[in-house]
Amino acid sequence: MSTQPAAWNHARVRVTGIATYRFEHFTLSEPACGEKELSTRMWLTFGGRTASGAVYCCPGEGEPRRSKPLVIDGKELPLIEDETFRRFTEQLRKGETTLRVTVVGTFFSGEKDQTDGTWRAFGHMGCCSLLVIEQVERFESAKTAPRGR
How many domains are there within the chain? Predict the structure, then answer.
């Protein structure tokens, strides 16, 4: 996805990677991809009415619940709030955390920055492309997770 983000714009995807949650940061990465793959950083948020609670600039998530389901580019994005999702968000609420996660969601590429070649429009200061999580399939501590899963 990261070598041609525009080709994946609005695509529903299933991905596994490292979710990092802390102040001004709720992103998905995969260290095994290497440095050259960093042209696409993925900001994370949840579909439906549940906000991630990530604190960041411009505009930030704010309240834990949205008044309406999330809509981006005219597309309403759902969220399955099952037991796995509840356990995942409990881990996030504990504060700074890093988890290996497999999620299903919709990808939004944003626009390519002509000065540095990165894709941006979403997240802290418009840093990133966006992955709207619609379902958390599984997660575990990134410190103990085996690679390649």
Answer: 1
